[in-house]
Amino acid sequence: MTSEVLALAKELILRPSMTPDDAGCQALLAERLRRAGFTCESMRLGAVDNLWATHGGGGPVLVLLGHTDVVPPGPREAWASDPFVPEVRDGRLYGRGAADMKGSVAAFVVALERFVAAHPAHPGTLALLLTSDEEGDAIDGVRRVAAAFRERGQRIDWCITGEPSSKQALGDLLRVGRRGTLSATLTVHGVQGHVAYPDKARNPIHLALPALGQLAARTWDDGYESFPPTSLQLSNVHAGTGANNVIPGELQVMFNLRYNPHWTAARLESECEAILRAHGLDYGIAWHRGGEPFHTPEGPLRAAAREVLARFAGAAPEESTGGGTSDARFIAPLGAQCIEVGPVNASIHKVDEHVALAELEALPDLYCALLERLLA
Ligand SMILES: [Zn+2]
């Protein structure tokens, strides 16, 4: 017999929702949630579909956060079965998005239905936020929805993202934050000339080296709770014409900072530029802010998640701030505590992406247990 969560995950995989195309996933889910008593608001922003479904009212506001889009499958021949035709083999469900994150989204919806059936008059607001632009540019997705929430005064207390976070077994890792990322492209200007006449040139390599050395050697901080120390890494350095008798006119450098909540992007930018200026460099710099860090300190959400995950994994979860980006970075600045809990991530973005049936079947129970702890 096909379970509810398996049937729904299959329905979602059948819809080839490559970013930013939602391919009808959200309409299917909104229909189900409406039947369960949720109020559904579709927010179409640019080419992106977003769904905001709520049940109840007032605080606290608990949001389940996910995405319906998937990354492209790559060549069909590389897959053992069609990536957009769900297939169960060897105790696993195969298909693009099975793990990232249509399995979690299906489990969210089944858990929400079960929870409101058992607690029709639960305290506070229970909500689901879905976007079809998580895997792409992430511009018209949760970033813009969060801006709209800020404008209309929509508060969020707790946010649970269903990204595949587990390492070997469901619930063995609880993500409680993530580092920020900031990139720079630096151009140091000099004056080109003959190496035999350095007095008639300005060598940008010589001018830049002490500043780059200082940037690379600097200790930014000693870490922050479970975060490692902030780190600056030079990733590209280029200057020179290829000839050994020419002082180049320009030096180009790229570097990236992975930073913990000691810092904001703005403060790091001004610290770096202060060093460049202190060395008297004539430079131009382009910054790209990839996302501020977020961190959920000890509190009711983390405590509830730790207890529930331990029950499912058989041991207390590792509490981590590692891993890649997620849309939680846009929700955290609204003042929300954010955690990420989802299935094992071993096959995500790969060919033959899959989720173990045992994990998929356990996910609605896990999410429902979290809702019970927080809103019942
Ligand atoms: Zn994902």
Automatic annotation (TrEMBL):
GO molecular function, one term: succinyl-diaminopimelate desuccinylase activity
Full protein name: Succinyl-diaminopimelate desuccinylase
CDD domains: M20_DapE_proteobac
Record family assignment: Belongs to the peptidase M20A family. DapE subfamily.
Domain Peptidase M20 dimerisation as annotated: residue spans: 176-283
Function: Catalyzes the hydrolysis of N-succinyl-L,L-diaminopimelic acid (SDAP), forming succinate and LL-2,6-diaminopimelate (DAP), an intermediate involved in the bacterial biosynthesis of lysine and meso-diaminopimelic acid, an essential component of bacterial cell walls.
Catalyzed reaction equations: N-succinyl-(2S,6S)-2,6-diaminopimelate + H2O = (2S,6S)-2,6-diaminopimelate + succinate
HAMAP family the record matches: DapE
Catalytic machinery residues: D69, E134
Source superkingdom: Bacteria
Cofactor note: Binds 2 Zn(2+) or Co(2+) ions per subunit.
The protein's annotated pathway: Amino-acid biosynthesis; L-lysine biosynthesis via DAP pathway; LL-2,6-diaminopimelate from (S)-tetrahydrodipicolinate (succinylase route): step 3/3
Keyword entries, A-Z: Amino-acid biosynthesis, Cobalt, Diaminopimelate biosynthesis, Hydrolase, Lysine biosynthesis, Metal-binding, Zinc
InterPro entries attached to this UniProt entry: ArgE/DapE_CS, Bact_exopeptidase_dim_dom, DapE_proteobac, Peptidase_M20, Peptidase_M20_dimer, Peptidase_M20A
Binding of Zn(2+) 1, residues: H67, D100, E163
Subunit structure: Homodimer.
List of residues binding Zn(2+) 2: D100, E135, H349
NCBIfam families (alphabetical): dapE_proteo, PRK13009.1
Gene: dapE
EC identifiers of the protein: 3.5.1.18
